[in-house]
Amino acid sequence: MGEEPRRFVKLWFARAKLNIMMRPAALEDEVREVISAAEAKKVLKHIETCDSTMSQQWKTRTGRNEKAIASHDPFECARVYKGLSRFQAEGNNLRAADRKHMQTAFELLADELAAALDKPISEIEVDIRKRSEV
Q1: CA distances (Å), 79 to each of 9, 16, 54, 59, 65, in order?
Q2: Strand 18-22 relative to strand 9-13, pairing
Q3: Of 13, 30, 37, 132, whose CB has the highest number of CB atoms within 10 Å?
């Protein structure tokens, strides 16, 4: 009458070179599926067409961007990245929080799209930058 062996799921996060182990029961509550290839193509199109105007008020801008990034929604990450890229291109100085949000949104977006489209992250990063140009 031995104890049943404990089971874990191992998750690998390539960009951070990080392994996380968790119980399978926690997986459903903590981890979502990667978006489909069709959805990823919609996100890429969204990068080109989304209204990404950023508030001039840094507090408002920071709050909205934090909320968007925390959602991990690729469409919201695309809006944050493109919006801050445009904001900077228009001659506005980015605050430290803006730079962090722009980088985080970019990385989350690139990682998700690369996984969904089964392409190298570097290729997706180039595509995101190209589609974000103002």
Answers
A1: 32, 23, 9, 17, 9
A2: antiparallel
A3: 132
Q: What is the pTM of this model?
A: 0.86
**How far does CA 120 lie from the centroid of its chain?**
15
86 contacts 52 by C-beta, under 8 angstroms = yes
With a CB cutoff of 8 Å and minimum separation 6, the contacts of 9 are 21, 22, 23, 24, 27
Q: What token pair was written down for 19?
A: 């392994």
Q: DSSP character for 17?
A: T
Mean pLDDT of the chain: 91
pLDDT digits (tens, 9 = 90+) for 61-115: 999 999 999 999 999 999 999 999 999 999 999 999 999 999 999 999 999 999 9
> 115: which 2 tokens?
């996984």
> What does 32-61 look like in DSSP terms, one character per residue?
-PPPPHHHHHHHHHHHHH---PPPSSHHHH
